[in-house]
Amino acid sequence: MTAAAIVESRNFAVEETAGSHSLAALAAVRDALARLAARVGLAPTAVAWGIHDIVNENMASAARVHIAERGRDPRGYALLCTGGAGPVHAYGVARKLGLARVICPPAAGVASALGLLVAPARVDRVATVGIRLDRGSVAPLEAAFRRLEADALAVLAGTGLPLDTARIMRLADGRFLGQGFDLVVSLPDGPYEDTDGQRRGLQSAFESAYREKFALTPPDVPVEFINIRVAVRAPVAGSAVSVQARVATARGLAVKGTRPAYFPGRGFVETIVYDRHRLAVGDEIIGPAVVEEEGSTLVVGPGAIAHVAASGNIIMALGEA
Questions:
Q1: Which of 112, 125, 131, 156 has the lowest tally of Cβ within 10 angstroms?
Q2: Is residue 16 a contact partner of residue 2, using CB atoms and an 8 Å limit?
Q3: How far, in Å, CA of 78 to CA of 15, rounded?
Q4: Residue 279 burial (CB < 10 Å; 0-12/13-18/19+)?
Q5: In 287-303, which positions are buried (b, 16+ CB within 10 angstroms) versus exposed (e)?
Q6: Distance CA 114, CA 133 (A)
Q7: Rounded CA separation 265/129 (Å)
Q8: How far apart, in whole angstroms, are the C-alpha atoms of residue 10 and residue 261?
């Protein structure tokens, strides 16, 4: 059984959010779950939930590392869930992280494919330079950036996209002299001339990014750029995305029925199942509930209240479990 499955009956049947499996596959799931349950001395339901919860904890732990590295408070953020199984896990992961809101976009199961279709074309180039900003000339830096930009634009031209819409970004892998790690930072637009003002501008760009990440900068330590980077982007025609949710009509049309769903501490609860395609702007969903659509299923857990925004996103406030 995958962790994307929702245990839905006392016979340990599961519903896969990424699509329907054959009866043979479900039988294999039940058999594997029963054998594992016998080995660990637990009920199959407890084992099934344990698998799901371990996956939730693994995702939450990875998020905690990134949040801690950036010195952020997770309580000030919302969790955006995409992917076939993302909306299934979102409630549990958000609870573990102490988040107050979850945002589930329409067609979450194909969000990655949608992003691939609408994302701008991008060409990246990198070169090693090894330049200290406190001495020497920055003229070689400008020349190196121009070579990278010309190379990237030539690749982009081969796609047939108009170059007049392209946007060029300059970045550098910088560090304070003696540090053993680099920080990729955005740099001001060129051209760079060999002046004290230009050097100060480049140093200021690095120090501002460094302070944003680490709060403080070491005093009187030279900055060096190890690598420089160029990112050239060009929008793709017809890539604008406009999502419009269904206009509200009669309430209750989105309810498909009810079925038992398992929630820790409550066991199996008779849970309302909604058809997402029938939900309208302003519709409210009080947990526990399940919202189904092709490709993904959103779990609205106990204590949570969700509503459909004008964008079509479902905004879930977790509240008290």
A1: 112
A2: yes
A3: 27
A4: buried
A5: bbbbbbbebbbbbbbbe
A6: 42
A7: 59
A8: 10
Q: Which position has the token pair 């982007």? A: 233
Counting Cα atoms < 13 Å in the Cβ hemisphere of 164 gives 0
Name the 3-class secondary structure at 159.
Answer: coil
Q: Which pairs count as long-range contacts for 216-220, CB under 8 Å and 24+ apart, including other chains? A: 217/176, 218/176
Beta strands in 207-264 (DSSP E): 223-234, 255-263
Are the C-beta atoms of residues 206 and 200 closer than 8 Å to each other?
no
- For the chain, list the domains and their CATH numbers: 5-112+246-317 (no CATH), 124-234 (3.30.1490)
Please give the Cα distance from 8 to 16 (Å, whole number): 11
Q: Give this prediction's pTM.
A: 0.69
Q: Coil, helix or strand for 168? A: strand
